[in-house]
Specification:
alpha/beta, Rossmann fold, 2 domains, six-stranded parallel β-sheet, 15 helices, 41% helix, globular
Length: 330
């Protein structure tokens, strides 16, 4: 069986959407599914999204994309994103009366609201319209599914995320400064609410691993914080493992891949009681969630790292890829 994945998010972007598919595709191929991908890097005419320079927006004609899709001649079509490629692929599928599935990955309406003050509900009208023609809409967590159902999204099914336990189970501890070590790992952007972490009065060392549009601003404001930029491969694993607590202050993520990655090294995670973290974190086991972020951070210092690591083994890429496979072929 041949699957066509159409996505506006792909390498070299560094985000949860790209990471999810990079880990899912090899598992699908083991199950006998051939995966072809149409992504922005295949197109010459593209421009950077304002405030997201690494995200490229494609400009192309419907005929061009249709020819690419026809050449691939897939058995199934999955549209990963609500961007220009996603919308155009959806339009082609509807015109050609071809079934397709979609995924809801990102709370773009909330991101836009933060920047423009236009209510998120206005944009959810269009997002819902995009997804409601799909045979299946894959969403990352039960709490996110519940929110979307309240907004009248149809055909939703939970497709969780995994973690590579082999990769994140081997590491070397780094000397990052006086302990405890408190880290934030992820994109450095306003929607991630990083300042809620950086403003906490904590004894020890704060480390920010990642890059993004807010990086220079935060570097200037928080001169006592170590900003180390994006880290990859074993270096990234070592930063996770060298943290006593990873702080995840976002209130807009739909899952939070970094939470399970941190846990896979034994590092507990402090977060708010919101969609994403509340589906992953069990207080006292692999982290703490609640309204008081500092209290959650301090409580995490008492967590047994071995138990944290063991609990996270329930998140694996084979199981969630099987859910993806079963819903794509149904």
């Amino acid at each position: 069986m041949k699957l066509l994945l159409v996505t506006d998010a792909w390498k070299p972007q560094v985000n949860g959407v790209v990471r999810s598919y990079l880990n899912t595709i090899p598992e699908l191929e083991k199950m006998g599914m051939k995966v072809e991908i149409i992504h922005p890097e295949l197109f010459k005419l593209r421009f950077a999204l304002p405030s997201y320079n690494e995200i490229k927006v494609v400009i192309t004609r419907k005929k061009t994309l249709k020819n690419m899709m026809d050449q691939i001649n897939p058995d199934r079509i999955h549209i990963a994103t609500e961007g220009p490629l996603g919308y155009l692929a959806r339009k082609i599928c509807l015109t050609e009366k071809k079934g397709f599935s979609t995924s809801f990955h990102t709370r773009f309406p909330e991101y836009i609201q933060q920047r423009t003050k236009i209510p998120a509900s206005f944009f959810y009208f269009f997002i819902k319209h995009f997804h409601n023609k799909a045979k299946k809409v894959l969403v990352p967590t039960p709490s996110m599914q519940a929110e979307l159902i309240k907004m009248k999204f149809k055909n939703t099914v939970v497709w969780s995320r995994g973690v590579n336990h082999e990769k994140f189970g081997h590491y070397q501890k780094l000397d990052l400064g006086p302990g405890p070590i408190f880290s934030y790992i992820g994109r450095v952007a306003s929607e991630k609410n990083i300042q809620a972490f950086l403003d906490l009065d904590l004894d020890g060392t704060k480390v920010v691993v990642g890059d993004g549009p807010q990086l220079n601003k935060l570097k200037k404001k928080y001169t006592d914080v170590k900003f180390v930029g994006y880290q990859f491969g074993q270096d990234l694993v070592n930063y996770y493992a060298s943290s006593d607590v990873m702080v995840f202050p976002s209130k807009t993520d739909t899952f939070g891949n970094v939470v399970t990655e941190a846990n896979a090294t034994g590092t507990p995670v402090a977060a708010y009681d919101v969609t994403g973290p509340k589906d992953i974190i069990v207080n006292g086991i692999n982290g703490y969630i609640g309204d008081d972020l500092k209290e959650n951070v301090m409580n995490c210092l008492n967590i047994d790292r071995k138990k944290c690591q063991e609990y996270t083994k329930k998140f694996n890429w084979y199981e969630c890829s099987k859910v993806f496979y079963d819903n794509i072929i149904s």
